[in-house]
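Quick start: read one record
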Amino acid sequence: MGRAVHIPYSVGQDEDGIWCAHAYVGRVGCNGSGDTREEALADLRDAVVMVLEDDGAPEELTIMVDVA
């Protein structure tokens, strides 16, 4: 079963008009860019997924629950 987790991010345009998105997954910085805000966020989402797949979820995003 999947779980949705909100990861704070920032997004804005640089001086050349390219959209840039940034987030931290634990201590790892993730970046995305694109011609539109939506493309930058999609690129960021891919970067976040890659970090989670490679490194696993950081401790602050992991919750352990014992079910008896």
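The longest strand covers residues 19-25.
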